[in-house]
Amino acid sequence: MSLILYGRMLSPFARRVAIWCRLQGRAYESRPLMVNGPDFEELKKVNPLGRVPALVIDGGEVLIETSAITDWLDDTAPDGLRLVPATGPARREVLQGVAYANSAVEKGVSLVYDKNRRPKELHWGEWIERLEGQITAALAVLESKAPAEGWLGGERPNAADVTFVIAHDFIMATNPYLVEGKFPRLAALSAMAADVEAFKATAPAA
User: Fold this and answer.
1) Could you say which of 50, 75, 100 is where a domain stops?
2) Is the full-model pTM beyond 0.85?
3) Domain count of the chain?
């Protein structure tokens, strides 16, 4: 099956799809279009909303939104390579971990736009503090759920491992003061993941 993935790896959402594909042994073509600048009009030809990730699958069908894409990847995964359990309490537990991690990166993206990109004279201090507090709260939950050693998924990473690492790495890449020295289990999980090809090849700086 030929897949085309749109989005840069600095996007935590595009990176999630890329890691998912690699952990399932799926080859894909990467087209690292940005959501702003000259790439925006080109991206809208694939996703009219101009958002990433977008995944083109066989027959030219375009899938959008990270959760919908990863649901399709799991639904069509080779035997034994789902990243989310199919049903039951284990599925709920993994998806709740994903939800907290996704909240961290959503607020992290908002912080990038409101603090990193907006001119300093246009910063809204109270809003930035709110975002920082939400990010820190989400990361604290991830820290409490992160394993003391090994993967949450057991012998191989599951969806929670993937999203925990992405949340840590994205905040570290964009606003490291929120992460550095504060979440040792997340840092250890990220360090372990950095030696795994699926994570190493999709690192924001890769």
Assistant:
1) 75
2) yes
3) 2
